[in-house]
Design goal:
With 132 residues, the protein is of the alpha+beta class. It is 14% helix and 32% strand. Strands 1-4-5-3-2 form a five-stranded mixed beta sheet. The protein has a two-stranded antiparallel sheet with strand order 6-7. The relative contact order is 0.19. Pfam families: CheW (PF01584).
Length: 132
């Protein structure tokens, strides 16, 4: 996630499920006096399902006027990435690639970093939720 989209990272706490909402919307939680929607990125991208565990975190991101939380297994911290190191998303891969800004190759496949386009992610999530 680009740092301009990062507000903070929280421990996953109590969430209130919303009836008749899309499966990728886990619910809402209170955060600094506001109601924060929380997304399951794995469900959203059809890659599985997040499990809320004691080490689970919620990444709080912003795009324009919209703020949302995204479930994260762990948060490793900030990493400086040179623009010249960012490769375009793979062509012909699954639908999840439309939400990528690019890819940064690491020394091993496990260290490859996918850069999410948080603005596109929120825009698509809102469209899917409203279309219901």
């Amino acid at each position: 996630m680009p740092s301009e989209n990062v507000l903070e990272v929280l421990r996953a706490g109590l969430m209130t499920p919303l009836p008749r909402s899309p499966s990728f919307l886990l619910g809402v939680t209170g955060h600094r006096g506001e109601v924060l929607p929380v997304l399951d990125l794995l469900r959203f991208l059809a890659k599985g399902e997040a499990r809320i565990m004691p080490r689970t975190r919620i990444f709080v991101g912003v795009s324009g006027n919209y703020v949302a939380g995204v479930v994260a297994d762990t948060v490793l911290g900030l990493r400086r990435i040179l623009v010249s190191d960012i490769l375009p998303p793979p062509v012909g891969a699954d639908a999840a690639t439309e939400h990528l800004l690019g890819v940064v190759q690491g020394p091993t496949a496990e260290e490859t970093v996918n850069l999410l386009n948080f603005s596109k992610l929120l825009q698509t999530a809102r469209q899917r939720a409203v279309a219901r």
